[in-house]
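Thread: quick sanity check before group meeting

JM: Hey all, I'm pulling together slides for Thursday and realized we never actually wrote out the predicted structure for the chain we discussed last week. Dropping the sequence here so it's in one place. If anyone has concerns about the input, flag it before I start.
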Amino acid sequence: MNQNDHVAAVQAETARLVTAVRSADPATPIPTCPDWTLADLLRHTGSVQRWFTALLLQRIQQPPTERRVDLKLPDRTEDYPAWLAESAAEADTAIASLDLDAPMWAWGIDQHARFWVRRMLFETLVHRVDAELALGLTADIAPALAADGVDEFLTNLPNAVFFAPRTAELRAEHRAIRFTRTDGDGDWLVRLRPDGFGLEAGEGAADATVSASAADLLLVLYGRLDRSAPGVTVAGDGELLDLWFANSAF
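JM (edit): ok, ran it. Output follows.
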């Protein structure tokens, strides 16, 4: 997928989420996000979209020192779906005015404006899945989109320690985990070292493997699907996988 695909997918994922929740009870609990209700999930998703939009419009070149943005949050939780749709529309207008290849500070690997669009996409997608699962709806993910999400997650996770502090525990004496997509091309080798971890190019040996369709692999990585679920195959060093799954999801 390219950055234009990401822009379009933000809108598509938001629209799907809004459609799913428009008539739902805002107090519906979200099992995949313990202690959250549907209202909490919508408020979080819209807030993230508005925050990322503000960062893009400012074209920040340094880490932000504050997180002050006018959320325009409605008083009634029943109005949150419409508000989320407006958040996505404002993001789309802002993104259309930008050069997504322009240099920009980002917490991840890709130091360009496009990083924030891709991150907005998968933040929205995962919470769309959360909402659909909570409402008993089919929470499918297009394979190409899911594979891109796996890549985005594994590429940027080594830089996520400031908001996912448990990733600092992902250390080992040069142990490797291979994540393999079973419904198309896609293979990611993550090596844990004494000083950190990250993706490794090439076809090195793995001490443990996780194999699943792209959609299931994405949900496993985000902690939305257990690795023991049907369709997910794990093999190799169980303690290494325990270490990974105990400290990697966010």
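AS: nice. The chain has two domains: 3-139, 162-247. The mean pLDDT is 96.
JM: adding both to the slides.
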